[in-house]
Write a structure and sequence with these properties.
The structure is a homodimer. The first copy, chain A, has helices spanning 11-18, 43-57, 64-71, 85-98, 113-130, 146-159, 166-197, 201-207, 209-215, 222-229, 237-252. By secondary structure, chain A is an all-alpha fold. The longest helix of chain A has 32 residues, at 166-197. At the A-B interface, helix 1, helix 6, helix 7, helix 9 and helix 10 of A face helix 1, helix 6, helix 7, helix 9 and helix 10 of B. Chain A binds a DNA duplex through residues 2, 31-40, 63-65, 68, 73-77, 79-80, 84-85.
DNA sequence: ATCAATTCCCGTAGGGTATACGAGAATTCA
DNA sequence: TGAATTCTCGTATACCCTACGGGAATTGAT
């Protein structure tokens, strides 16, 4: 992947694209409206096609050329809608972020704050499961679009009732998103490998005889050996995920 | 980034490269030794050059062509040392992983388990600070090399004394690495953006007037607005990082 | 000394990527 | 009808990774 350089060029253009389906800045009265050729696509067409292609055939299939073919236009036509592939990826990410179904302000939600966090957790994990390519994109610091802000807003609203200080509330929300997002990404990556190699993660591990037989040095890894002999590697990914999240929530709960 | 397909091809070759400076499998007696042209480089030369180039000029500079030029050889020469760029990246990652200074089995370490975790935390964060490109590579499921195993081993050895069940010990270690690695990666990514744009993260945010003035909708983000008015966004990245880690450790501690 | 076997070196070529440029087509308004 | 505007997209450039295969270097055996 090339460097991510959000913040270069015209950030206004990026923001305008991210928020294209929400409030719009007042139109520039200088510009004549109505003239010019009619566009054959919309930005959403391009974004949706990118998501679909990446879902079905992998992120590499969502190249500008492949995307153009899918849409039945010339490659360069896409650049009328999106300034670069970079920005298109940003738009794709925020689109799937915004599709998470999180209760908005005033909408009903469970009484228990942990169950409310669980909603965020489930929605985020499902998002990664349905869009495995997310694990190949830098989701950790996503563009500041409606999807990211909705997620932040929801988690903050959940934690506000806990009675923490404002700063603690914010950092607690950050800690939760950090853990949930990256653990979900890890799961998705694992699925991606399974799909690519056709064998499950467990099968892959047990097939790597060479590692344990010729390379692994018991003397240098006594703790791993202890855990191994005590059958400590039996937990499912799901169990591991929830264990970590619950311990984090335990620590946050006043 | 192209798809990561660890587990394809000859995994033995990959493992042999990752563990090249450790135990070696018994040499194949079939092969004549000694014949043939002498190599002008070593695998470590290539890996080190890749790390240096990525450190100094960004991950994109560490292309096979640029790397060859740096080493004064033809591009294709590199392929006698490394099967593909993919594998080279794996080797680079495990190399910086293994350079973390973590107390090995039997070596002295602090009495308090939290301080022992802090060693892992500090070393990992410093690793990301010195090799910002790590945040652009998929470190979450790194190749099974000596560096990754040393990190796992250390964390497990720390947690073994807590009296958790073997499974809990393992999942707790996973949770900690998940949090630490991804939070450190997030920090590095932020630094990368600062370096690229020449302005600090804070400056970037406050310069995005458009976001708050024209796009941000207070009614849809009451919690964010509350936190904002209560000055809840004042914490430094460092504070936020430690808050999250400490809450996780609180939850883990029996 | 010669030769075969082996190993490394690397130029060429092919197929992939993103995108700058600019000419042409379509549309609207004056 | 003509000017202004906007979208379309072919061509060309500049990268990227890497398959292939011939040549160079080195060794041990003859």
């Amino acid at each position: 992947m090339s460097e991510r350089r959000s913040g270069e060029g015209q950030p206004d253009r990026t923001l305008a694209l991210l928020w294209r389906n929400h409030r719009q800045p007042p139109a520039d009265p200088q510009r004549k409206r109505g003239a010019g050729r009619r566009p054959s696509l919309t930005v959403d067409d391009v974004v949706q096609a990118g998501i679909r292609l990446a879902d079905e055939q992998g992120l590499a299939a969502a190249s500008m050329g492949g995307l153009a073919k899918e849409l039945g236009v010339g490659t360069m036509t896409l650049y009328t809608y999106v300034p670069s592939k970079e920005e298109l990826l940003d738009l794709m990410v925020d689109q799937v972020l915004v599709e998470r179904r999180l209760p908005g302000p005033g909408e009903p939600r469970p009484a228990d704050w942990r169950e409310q966090v669980e909603i965020y957790s489930v929605q985020t994990r499902e998002m990664f499961q349905q869009h495995l390519w997310l694990s190949q994109v830098s989701t950790i610091r996503p563009p500041v679009g409606p999807g990211m802000l909705a997620g932040r807003e929801y988690l903050l609203s959940v934690l506000l009732d806990l009675g923490l200080t404002p700063t603690e509330t914010n950092t607690a929300a950050l800690a939760i998103t950090t853990y949930v997002d990256s653990a979900a990404s890890l799961e998705a990556e694992s699925l991606l490998v399974e799909r690519a190699t056709g064998q499950t993660n467990n099968a892959w591990w047990s097939e790597r005889n060479d590692l344990w037989e010729t390379y692994f040095d018991v003397d240098r890894h006594p703790a791993m050996t202890t855990i191994w002999h005590a059958n400590g590697y039996q937990s499912t990914p799901d169990d591991a995920y929830h264990y970590g999240l619950n311990r984090l929530l335990d620590g946050i709960q006043p």
